Amino acid sequence: MAVERPRVAVDRPPADDRVLTGVLGPYVEWVGAEETDVDGRVAVGAMGGAGDAVGDGGDGGDGGDAGDAGDAALPLIVAGKDARALAHFAERVFAHARLRAALAGSGRARDLIGFHTRHKMQVLAHDPARYRLAGRVVAQAGVRPPAAVAAEYAEVFRRALATPATVGKNVNVLQHCLGMLGLDPARRDEALAAIDAYQAGRAPLRLPAALLHRQATGYVRDQTYFVPYPDGLRDALDSLVPDEHRGHQ
């Protein structure tokens, strides 16, 4: 599921933002604010002071969507946001880059179906309602005009990822994946204990997710939910979260 570096537009390099330059910077391609074929935008300066929730819909996300930039579902983050917001933004821009690459391909129904299949658990963790809607849209691939299906799917997918995941939704996904693995009783108990620890705030999400992913095969192994962005970026983001806040991450 390799993908080219996401293109992130910014009005000027956010050199004074250590998080953006030192953590996200090595994994994205910075482009000018005038660019339109991008996977996300950084609001700096005139669009809002560092830490201001420009466009924040009150959902605790990464700072909202870039409605003023001409695309209401495009990821937007305000320079100065914290690690939680940056992690959500990173997840969204990498998902957007994969979507952009997929839609730039052959346009065959099976390609869209394959993309959706790999992203099912990631979408479910963010927005169960749009997860079901996305499935209905994909079911029309090969029946409706490909361009119309792709456009509708892209809108549903991007808006689903804009909704922050929650502990409850993550637990649902983890249990769903566990149910598909067919583990022996000892390994199943180990996985359940890790999920319970995450749910109780005693462990980060990465613990049960990594445990399940190591033992997964086929469909579950290929889910982008387990690797939403490069491991190096995940390590860097984890290092920014204080130990007392690592539960529920």
From TrEMBL:
It comes from the Bacteria. Residues 120-230 form the DUF1722 domain. Pfam families: DUF1722. This is DUF1722 domain-containing protein.
